[in-house]
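Limitations
The structure tokens in this dataset are predictions for the assembled complex, not deposited experimental models. Users should treat interface geometry with appropriate caution, especially where small molecules or nucleic acid strands are included. An illustrative entry is reproduced here so readers can see what is and is not provided.
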Amino acid sequence: MITVLEAGQFTTIQDQGRFGYQAWGMPVSGAMDTYAAAMANRLAGNETEQAVIEMTGRGGAFKFDQKTLVAVCGADMEGMAGSRKIQGWRSFFVQPGDILRFFHAREGYRTYLAVQGGIDVPLVMGSRSTYTRAQLGGFEGRCLLPGDVLYIGKAVPGKEALAAEKSAIPRYEEALSLRVLGAAGVSALGAAADEFFAATYTLGQDSDRVNYSLTGPLLALSGRTDIISTAVGQGAIQITSAGRPYIVASDHGTIRGFSRIGYVIQADLPMLAQAKPGAELSFQKICEEEAVAIWRAERNKLDALK
Amino acid sequence: MTENSILQELHLFGAGETGLVAEFGQQISPRINAAVHRFSRLLRADLPCGVTEIVPTYCAVTIYFDPLCIKRHELEQTVRNLALTMETPETVREASQIIYIPVCYGGVLGPDMDYAVKYTGLPAEEIIRLHTEKPYLVYTLGFTPGFPYLGGLQPELFVPRQEKPRLRVPTGSVGIGGGQTGFYPSESPGEWWLIGRTPVKAFDPEESNPFLLTAGDFVQFFSVDRDTYFSIRREVAAHSYVCRREEAQLG
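Predicted assembly:
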């Protein structure tokens, strides 16, 4: 059992996402940084799909009443386990009565706390992820609050503490170059697409689990950017009719009628999730073969810990 | 138009390394949308390995896939082969359903009926008659879980959208605006004029089938009085109300 003592800025239960219902308008949700969430699970002796605690910007405090193997991955929130500093990207045992306390994110923006056995909240439509906009999934469909009590799923005995390979630990930088696959049919956007790839943006303060907003030059559009609505997924870069680009995040609606410039590659979405509001972002086009090769390498890092 | 011409309009393009879009045209029309849903059903019935989700919209089907399980060119070949089978007679006659949805029009449950009367110049009874006259095609679902984008509103009921959207439209509200109609499966912001409300839930995550509608279905609204609205509402709360469904005999 885990008691929430402090909630933090925006703390929810997430897993790898709710799949299979986008045709009915249900977004995928799930961890914004699926890599850190999956790695935290692996280190804590879980399957990657288990539910974890996602903390955003500023973390909370959690009291454990049982001995548990836990792991912390993602942003460095200067976590403390009692009076000991928490080392990220490795698992360790907490003892009954221990309190894990997290503070402001120093490097990175989102921190994942995994416990062996996973956070035991009900499966809603095949997932434990919280989708706050529909008040669904996770813990009562909302952010955690002080006083909430979380149960821990059944753990397999005999698991030991592990550490991630150095090469599997990402470095979070203040300036980020995101790799992008261009969208088909961007000719309608004219020079605006070239302008986009040449520009530098900052991640907007109003970014959340729905959108990453981009502050920077408005793109000069020759015509309207609305299209007949089609499906959009995480990483799609869209332009509003005012010429403002934004990037689709986990809780974004499933269809939209804005033109797309391109798609941030899957392997870079975790890096984007770790960018702090105010971080500098630029975009670089790559080809599909490269994107798939990078994705394969990312998967291998996780599988190395199986 | 023949099926053949639809195949000639089939256009495949990427949407990131995990997305493939099969586009059947570039306009909002029941003909193109029927091809979209026919194709989605076929694909769903025999899902290629590595395909994670299929999202049909107005004119296109977006196929999400894992490029480590299936290569793009293999998936494209599968999609083209499947599109060819769309022409065979047994797959042309697919089953769309008409779902009958009770609506209490006007009064406190349809607070903008007065506006609709004023704007259209039609009496409320005529607005209700027109709104319930024909089934509406569910082109696609989105915006919020289970939210249907309907087509087929009578031009007499075209009104502009509200300039200032309501921040919280009550669940079940039925609205018109911008040449469209529909209803809200959950509380959300909205810019339509609300002419009625349905007691029926179009989205309930607790149910084994959480969604009342699937894209490609048809919605037929029918008018009920306030007492009936509240009695159906009680049945919905007790999970004992089932919407009447019929196979669509259209075209």
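Some entries come with short summary sentences. For this one: The longest strand of chain A covers residues 255-264.
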